[in-house]
Amino acid sequence: MKPAATVALIALSLLPTSASTQSSRAARPNIIYIMTDDHAAHAIGAYGSKVNKTPNMDRLAREGALLTSVFATNSICTPSRAAILTGQYSHLNGVTMFNRFDGNRMTVARLLQSGGYFTGMIGKWHLGSDPQGFDYWNILPGQGVYFNPVFYTAMAETTYTGRYVTDVITDLALDFLKNRPKGKPFFLMMHHKAPHRPWDPTDEHAAHFATQRIPEPVTFWDNYETRTDALHENQQRVARDMTNRDLKLPPPEGLAGQALARWRLLKPDTVTIERDGKPVTLTGEALVRWKYQRYMQDYLATVQSVDESVGQVLAYLDKAGLASNTMVIYTSDQGFFLGDHGLFDKRFMYEESIRMPFLVRWPAAIKPGTRSGAMGLNIDFAPTFLEAAGLPASADMQGRSLVSVLRGKVPATWRTSMYYRYYHDPGDHNTRAHYGVRTMTHKLIYFWKKDQWELFDLVNDPYELHNLYGQPGQEVLTATLKAELARRKREARDDDQLADAQLPNGVDGTAARLRGK
Ligand code: CA
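^ thats the input. predicted complex w/ calcium ion below
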């Protein structure tokens, strides 16, 4: 997606002021925070998707606000979740990779709970420790699975045989809403597994995409010219890094156990498919195009399950008379490459990876159709929920409340640049560690273990294909961006202490205990 070219801000003269909505505790909004895993904004109709339709997510955008420039500060699952809960960057909340989140830390859930909210957490948690600050929680162990999913609470583990994970999360969320104590506002974190790898859709959703040809993105055949070694070395390419499991290829007959497990992880460079009743062996460019179709058909099919889930939640709010004063957020823990730059994961500081969808409907406070290109970050979510609830943010939080932005009034002092840092190196997909700064017009990325830089002009090169670093004539721009990067890094209080720390992975507390029995 291109950065927002225009920012349409709508005057909100008819809406109540911040002071009046917060004056009465009884009027405090309910908050339903719906977060998916790896759902890129460019696979949502309201964000201009060319690959799918999402009518229920689009309804949130139509009836509420759509922010075009909300970014993850470390584009990977577990760190983004920790940043969202704490309002802090990875180097302060301690979760730089897949390491365990210390549940005793201050979180937005704790603050809302102590501020009088009934709090719930349902679905994918993935923080390597049990949730705290929630009156009710029911979560997937680790990544969870799509079919016959296991969920666990502090007391018990339940297998939902014959069920699909998105549907179970939806049912549990609706039960939470129906059974909640009615005298309190509620805060529900509803975290879907979809559309995370390995993208296992239901037959019904798979059928919807099985015969569709998904358009390839304009950078699908990017040859990485002018970019650093880091991009060349990555192992998240559609062309060569998708496994037999990713592509849902049928295993050879008779394969079982370890041999089957090993086969699933192989990355095929020829595939034989059936076309018009005849076997056809694909290689080279034809195979790459086929892999992209298989990937996107399944990815988008899992997104459809979530879109339907959003519709079910909105229908319940309508029926229960809760729609007006309930803030419904739809977002994802980060973006994702949908074949952009030939990739299928995230991690890199490029636009498709760091951009998070951010849709918010709250009829009592946000005018329908509100649009803003103000730069938001995942560390802003916690302060946003707290302001909406009329509660102060913790002094430890590094983000800023987005409530004014959502009301269509961007403060004069609002940020125009952001700091980013990705640590997982060596790690999955061989994506090299880097940090950088993104302004409203440019991006500077530093791969510190390689001492290599990339610099992009986001206005004239929105797809980040032309690395300007070291080019003649870019000296002043480079110096300006380096100074801004240093300023942002300092302001974020990143002193490089965790830069190369290999922290141990987390183990789900109660899940491990229950399984140990
Ligand atoms: Ca994720």
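The chain is about 30% helix and 15% strand.
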